[in-house]
Design goal:
This protein is an alpha+beta fold and 413 residues long. It is built from 15 helices and 5 strands. It has 2 domains: 219 residues, Rhopdopsin 7-helix transmembrane proteins (Up-down Bundle); 147 residues, Alpha-Beta Plaits (2-Layer Sandwich), CATH 3.30.70. The protein has a 5-stranded mixed β-sheet, with helices on both faces. Helix 13 links the parallel strand 4 and strand 5. The longest helix is centred in the middle third of the chain and has 38 residues.
Amino acid sequence: MELTLHLPTILVVHGMAMLIATLLCIAIWIRERPNNVLAMLMIAGTVTCVSMALHGSRTMLPLPLASGVGLALAVIGAGFFWQAVVAFEGKPLSMTKATMGGVIWLCCWLVPPFVESTAIRTLVLALLLCSYCLLSSREIWLGRVVEPLLSRPLAAAANALRGLVWLASIPLSLLVSPPYGANGSNASWFSLLAVANTMLIVLSLIAMLMLAKERDERLYRLASERDPLTNLANRRTFVMTAQSILASEKGRATLLLLDIDHFKRINDTHGHAAGDRVLIAFSRAIDKRMPKGWIFARIGGEEFACLLPNASGAHGLAIAENLRMVIETMHLDADRLVPVTVSIGVATASDASVLLDTLLAEADAALYQAKAKGRNCVCLHDTMAMLDVANAQLETVKSTMGRTPLARIRHRN
């Protein structure tokens, strides 16, 4: 048992594990510079390796160097690991916060009672390391609200357990035995905690790499689901989500099809950069008025779609009219040099039997009617009204054909 828990051997294993992890971070960092997360992990791994080398040689080195400087570097390593987590969450780094714990530890060595008491040194070291570990766990856990990655609970738990392991050394040191005896031997519980700490550090590093991998996968997935210019859902995402809503038990929904009026003229007159600004401003003006559960997407060049679950045609018509007025009064670049209006077609699905393709076709027909009325207006799809419009158009075509010479020749024959 004593051979298995030989502390210098444990420290060597700990140092080798940290060295391998550090070399891996360096290899990745060389390919992905600049990367603050990897830079902080590299610093954390390097100072921890040096710390293990110094503290593992405590029988050969002066105590202030082995335990003073050596364990100060261990605390700084934990601080830089915390800052790696901070960088991963997109927050500003603080070298002061990362090194503050090590500075406090070194300052304590200037106090004689601290140097003379193993119990006090254990208490201070445990509190410093526990604080950094719990801060790392807290950052990872809070990040789940904005970015719900699957490995967050594992990473948060690994860092929290590291903190608890160090915290456990306080009652063990006071109630069982000091971590180091007068003859230089170490307590069995201290060796056990060192093994647990080594395993949890490796687990924490693996969890961080898993989080980075999951973030990349999530970004790729979001890129495939979003329109790159407006950051709205794209047509593929809209179709999949809308089909799911329409296939639900209720199936009742209203679809708005929005088309920016004379968008080609805006591009031709003001340039494509102005056209892009119009699309972005239009998207933001509509999107910020979308309640939770509604789907708003860019499905074409200047064409957008909005699905309103459990909304009647009258409700959808009122919402569309409100959106039309919002766009009509929209300012672009704090001036009115680029007037923007929108035509909106509205169609309603009364039950789950209505297919999305049918609803899109009906909304498109209503949109065509809105444009035929002069644009900057809203039309609700009405089958009878559409038939009347189609018949009127057919009569117009027949009348026009009747005035051609060919028609008159055929008539005489």
